[in-house]
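Hey team,

Sharing the Type II secretion system protein GspF domain-containing protein run so nobody has to redo it. Sequence (291 residues) first:
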Amino acid sequence: MADVGVGETVLGAGLACAGGVAWALNARHQGVRRARLLFAGGGVVDPGPTPWERGLGELRRLHDRVGAEWWSLVAGLVLALLGASVVPVVAGAAGVPVLRRVGKARRARLVREGRADAVIALCGVLAGEVRAGQQPGEALLRAERDSGGLGEAQAAALAAARFGGDVPGALAVAARQPGAEGLLGLAACWRVAVDQGAGLAAGLDRLDGALRAERDQRADLRAQLSGARATALLLAVLPLFGLLLGAAMGADPLRVLLHTGAGLGCLVAGAVFEGAGLWWAVRIVRGAEAA
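Structure output:
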């Protein structure tokens, strides 16, 4: 018990010293920046980034260059060196494809949401152009330039509008891409306006309102589910805090987990239960979003 108390005291003192040194370095840098601004004679002086900003920038560039999924292997190598075992390396390598799949799903979601926002912007701008007296084809061309467009998803529709082709059909084909489903409503409004002479601007206003309401509903649902996501993430990282706490108390949990039969059994069982819990939490959240 005395050794544990001494270890905790040394650890706390080391952390306090490190925090003091970091605070002193940052305060010194801020003082230099203030002095440069004071003696600049009223001119604009760029003091440059702080050491913390430079460090964060380097980490961000390294993260973009390496990829988020490879940090799993890096963490496995670090734990392998600390625990003198190859088990963390195997686990880190197994986590690379999982994290890559998660990253691809996140990027696909961002692209899908970007397309949905572009469709909403297109409908609003197109309604304004038609209300200003533009013909539907010319209004679509102008709205594409003003709204930022949908990239390849809208190229066929623009070509049809420019050369007198089947604009609703081209819009229906473009709506097959994830996030561009709102173009089906635009195609329906276009077809009704051309075939029956109905007001295109009024239909576009209603479509724009419906798409905005749907986007706001998704955002509200995502905000309500953020608490569940945060709870699942906290429960997922709790074992890491347990390992850090055990190391701080001098229990050497890595040696127990990686070099004893009971520890390996607990590690495998914990990993299975951890993975099952995360899978179940993600399944519940996705089910709520789909509903």
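Residues 200-248 form the longest helix (49 residues).

Ping me if you want the raw files.
A.
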